[in-house]
Amino acid sequence: MTDHDPMQGDAKKIAGLGQEKIKGVFSTQSVVKVGTGTTQRKTIQKTFWHCEERDDGNVEVQPLNVNYIPSGPKREVTREDFLAKFNPEPEFYVSTVFPKMQELNETIVRGEKHRARGAAYSAEFEFKQATAIDEDNVRANFGLGLTYLDRGEQTKANDIFKRLVNLEAAFEEEHKHLFNDFGINLRKNSMYDQALEYYLRAEGLVEDDENLFHNIARVYFEKGDLDSCITYLKKSLELNPHMEESVMFMTYLKKNNMLPGGGGAKASKPEKQSRKVEKDEDINLEF
Length: 287
Prior knowledge:
Layout: H1 6-14, E1 23-34, E2 41-53, E3 59-63, E4 75-77, H2 79-85, E5 87-88, H3 90-116, H4 120-133, H5 138-150, H6 154-164, H7 176-188, H8 192-203, H9 210-223, H10 226-239, H11 244-255, H12 275-281
């Protein structure tokens, strides 16, 4: 009777062994010249990739970083080119890459649990451990940024914002809830310029979305730019005339004579704003 390693069994499934679709770790080789003049020589350089075949038949490939974690920009290659240039590395996946990915995920989960129960410094420790393994990990960066915002540490949060706003993966559908939480917390910490840049970056990467337009309108309102606020609020209602939050926001502006012809070109924030408008902006984006 032999011992069964359940993790390796799961890893083999994930690696795509026995499956029709391509999934797992593969490698490519290239010839690189080293040195100059008479000391110049050629060496073979091996690069490892995490690969997954998409429904359209193309294969999405992402390089492994120095810690053997899939990281950095993804690109697509045709299945034909993939089969010609990429070599499978199933044993390397099972023995090295999968355990590293599991370890990273467990670290992030610990951080998220610490943050959920208000243990901000423990959360920071775990998220920093995760970003040390994969600097571009979206969940770890969101977690770290939200932890700093929870503590009101705007300078540190701004450093994370600068990293996230340049990561296209941060705006993908799978991260929409983290994306929304981060944007709302930027606004609540009065980091209006950052929140606006963040949302406008999303606008350039995703399809028209009424919730995103609503959130942009909310930030412009906080900044006192009523014209831009109304522009984006109208965009939200054009996409979904029945969106309750935007309807209520527009009603709020009408009641306070903030619409064109109703007086006031700037949004003067009342001492106590409508709690309903504040609550209604904190909604999940649906990309």
